[in-house]
Amino acid sequence: IIEALVNVGERLGVSYRLSTPVAQILLTRDSGRATGVLLSSGEQLSADIVVNNSDLVYAYNNLLPPSTTATALSKRPSSCSSISFYWALDTQVPALSAHNIFLADEYRESFDNIFKKHLIPEQPSFYVNVPSRVDPTAAPEGKDAVVVLVPVGHLLESGSDAHAGSNAPGSTSTSHNASPASARDGKHATPTTQDWPGMVALARRTVLSTIFARTGVDLGPHIAHESANTPATWKTLLNLDKGAILGLSHSFFNVLCFRPPTRARLGGRPGTGLFDELGGAASSIAASIRLGGGDDVKGLYFVGASTHPGTGVPICLAGSKVTAAQILADLGMPAPWAAGEAADHGVMGARGKGGDGAEIDAKRAGPLLSRFHYALLLLLLLVLLSLLVRTGTGTGTGLLRAPLAAPSSRPALRAEL
Ligand SMILES: Cc1cc2nc3c(=O)[nH]c(=O)nc-3n(C[C@H](O)[C@H](O)[C@H](O)COP(=O)(O)OP(=O)(O)OC[C@H]3O[C@@H](n4cnc5c(N)ncnc54)[C@H](O)[C@@H]3O)c2cc1C
């Protein structure tokens, strides 16, 4: 995909500068407009339009001036992270196909450990990919390359960086060739803190013993070379906030109108907002509303996992079209693809000078407080529902059962309500 995109860009005259980190996105003095970027090398590039593709939460907190938006984004729920193993095998393992998913028996407990405790489950579900099964260049003849992805919780705080896992970013280690037999001997205690070396060791043992138990293949002795990535690696290598491999989660207050917009908005200075110290859902709602308000930083756009429409390679590709359409609309230029889509669908892109970019703008230009009202209505509905459920699952005194209940039970109903 990347190769194809690079080819298209080069045909259109784009030049790429790889391994060139951006240290800062440059803004005018009033932060009203982006003017370019400052590279880590000290070189300054000026630009009419800046499109940020680095992790959105990282960018607000590291590349832009401090703001309430940045603070609010840091409090939002993030997606999971992963411990990933990269194994070079000295043989082929026909028992494994290109894509293999191993699901834990204790499904709910497994996912609670990831998403609520931010740890590794005692019995993790994991994904094993064998790229050499479909791409002969991925391993020498007669051998296999294996990638294992074990979903784990994200880093809890930046202090977690101290636990850099068994391998620093980019580094490799040779195999310990541990046999799954040793892993089968005892029950491994689930870690209760984010001890990454411990979690990597646990993940490795569990993956090997599970593959052995379910396929009969003892992979350990065949691992000729290996490396592992932890949440800390993802954070350091890709600047992913908290090492969350999918960016902001797709939880309720992180999707649709609550997802950070593709146009940059800084809000006020940090510490000046009423909700700054709030945590949990309340701060999420407050953060969402605040992200919906304020003025755009002109000429600065976001694309990628943590903005619209969301995370994952196909979704991010779709998102790049959304961002491109908005930029063209802001420049008063028609999107080249708009005419085709108007013919295809009869609606999108047919209205306004900016094609479907203008369509998106029309939706975004609604009254500022409507999101707040939606959130309030939703909260009210949730409170009412929880009351109904509480009383409805009682001992015959519930609201829904009240007309059928014995007269003596009705005072209890009133008391409960
Ligand atoms: C281990 C793992 C497994 C995954 N599996 C899947 C999967 O199976 N299916 C799926 O759909 N998605 C998967 N994803 C998620 C998917 O990769 C992401 O959602 C997607 O790549 C996000 O695209 P993006 O453009 O937002 O960011 P990225 O693809 O991360 O691109 C952002 C780029 O910005 C660069 N960058 C960061 N900071 C700076 C800076 N300061 N200066 C210059 N450049 C910078 C980074 O180096 C990176 O190249 C996986 C992710 C991981 C980590």
TrEMBL record:
Keyword Aminoacyl-tRNA synthetase: no
InterPro entries: FAD/NAD-bd_sf, Phytoene_DH_bac_CS
Keyword set, alphabetical order: Membrane, Transmembrane, Transmembrane helix
PROSITE patterns for the chain: PHYTOENE_DH (PS00982)
Disordered as annotated region, ranges: 160-194
Annotated TM spans: 372-389
Biased composition (Polar residues): 168-180
Domain of life of the organism encoding this protein: Eukaryota
Record protein name field: Phytoene desaturase
